[in-house]
Design brief:
With 208 residues, the chain is an alpha/beta fold. It has a single domain, classed as Bira Bifunctional Protein, Domain 2 (BirA Bifunctional Protein, domain 2). Strand 7 and strand 8 form a beta hairpin.
Length: 208
């Protein structure tokens, strides 16, 4: 599995095109790919998104994009680690629910590396700290290959969440690693912990 780390300020459309190329490669029998990056500010609408969850009071300068992942509306931006594992699940013998649990396990172990105790919510996909979501998960599977993935709040501008009802859940909040730790968090250190968590779950990542 190849690791691609293009850095920060990546437009959503650019990363989506990369994923589509990687999906075609994996579906044809080529290598799987893990993208780790930070987006420019964007609200993305999943296949289940409700228009009312994108608030009229949002910052009009933030791009809004409809996408093919599952779930409702969420925010991506600088200070948030976005991971797109493009994995041939069929070749690896992984069912979708097994794969989603793998993603959650990797994120829980990444947070634990920094002393943050995350938890699952059986009603809502993602990783939580108490009643606040710290990582969102939304995927799509095409030709047996996964795309999209997860978004872990390391130190994003949390005011941007005021423009949406995140994931369509009105009775819960959002948080970040910085808020939980009360100090800045190094993004590269989070990436290293995330890669280690995935490696421990049977993936290896030569860098591209």
């Amino acid at each position: 599995m190849t690791l691609r780390d293009p850095g920060s300020n990546i437009p959503y459309a650019t990363a989506l095109a990369w994923q589509e190329e990687a999906l075609a490669t994996a579906a044809a029998g080529g290598d799987d790919t893990l993208f780790l990056l930070e987006h420019t500010p964007v609200y993305t609408l999943g296949r289940s998104a409700q228009p009312a969850n994108l608030l009229a009071t949002r910052d009009p300068s933030i791009e809004v994009v409809a996408t093919t992942r599952g779930g409702d509306v969420t925010y991506h931006g600088p200070g948030q680690l976005v991971g797109y594992p493009v994995i041939n699940l069929r070749r690896r013998g992984l069912l979708l629910l097994e794969y989603l649990r793998l993603l959650e396990d990797a994120l829980l172990h990444t947070l634990a590396h920094f002393g943050i105790a995350g938890n699952r919510d059986p009603r809502n996909r993602g990783i939580w700290v108490g009643n606040d979501k710290i990582a969102a998960i939304g995927v799509r599977v095409s030709r047996g290959v996964s795309m999209h993935g997860f978004a872990l709040n390391v130190d994003p501008d949390m005011t941007h969440y005021a423009g949406i009802i995140p994931c369509g859940i009105s009775n819960a909040g959002v948080t970040s690693m910085r808020l939980q730790l009360g100090r800045p968090v190094d993004m590269d250190a989070v990436k290293r912990a995330c890669i280690q968590a995935f490696t421990e779950r049977g993936f290896s990542y030569p860098r591209k």
